[in-house]
């Protein structure tokens, strides 16, 4: 469980937020190859996922406030919030269709 400002975080990824991130020129790394991801790849996803609950949050705040978590904790939170099992090929394929919707 991730916490922000002492509150448990529930990440949300509505298509609207993802589309807005594209307008901001935010580069969202592909989540389709979890074994190649590094901790820094989770920050843009956390930023987008937190925007619904914390509209004023910035990417710099996310990087600062969430760096205490491990790579696995951060990525697990992102995948779980999308109902994706990063160890399941079928689950990752469903995610690829979702990612195409965003573009």
Summarize the structure.
The chain has 103 residues and is mainly alpha-helical. It contains five helices and two strands, in the order ββααααα.
Question: What does this protein structure show overall?
Answer:
- The chain has about 100 residues and is mainly α.
- Helices cover about 55% and strands about 5% of the residues.
- It is built from 5 helices and 2 strands.
- A two-stranded antiparallel sheet has the order 1-2.
- A hairpin with a 2-residue loop joins strand 1 and strand 2 (about 5-10).
- The model has no long low-confidence stretch (mean pLDDT about 85).
Quaternary organisation of the protein chains: single chain
**Computed Rg:** 13 Å
Mean pLDDT: 84
> Segments where pLDDT lies below 50 for 5+ residues?
none
Query: Considering DSSP H and I runs of 4 or more, what fraction of the residues is helical?
Result: 40-55%
Find the structural class using helix and strand composition.
mainly alpha
The CA-CA distance between the termini, in Å, is 29 Å
Shape: globular
- Strand elements, count: 2
**Biggest pleated-sheet summary:** 2 strands, antiparallel
Q: How large is the count of helical segments?
A: 5
Task: Note the run of SSEs as H and E.
Answer: EEHHHHH
Spatially, the strands of the biggest sheet line up as 1-2
Topology at a glance:
Layout lengths: L2 E2 L2 E2 L6 H9 L15 H13 L7 H8 L4 H11 L7 H14 L1
Helix pairs in contact: 2-3, 2-4
């Amino acid at each position: 469980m991730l916490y922000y400002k002492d509150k448990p975080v529930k990440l949300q990824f509505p298509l609207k937020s993802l589309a807005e991130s594209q307008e901001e020129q935010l580069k969202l790394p592909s989540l389709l190859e979890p074994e190649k991801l590094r901790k820094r790849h989770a920050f843009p996803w956390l930023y987008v996922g937190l925007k619904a609950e914390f509209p004023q949050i910035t990417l710099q705040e996310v990087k600062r406030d969430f760096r205490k978590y491990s790579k696995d904790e951060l990525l697990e939170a992102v995948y779980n919030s999308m109902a994706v099992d990063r160890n399941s090929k079928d689950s990752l394929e469903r995610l690829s269709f979702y990612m195409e919707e965003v573009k």
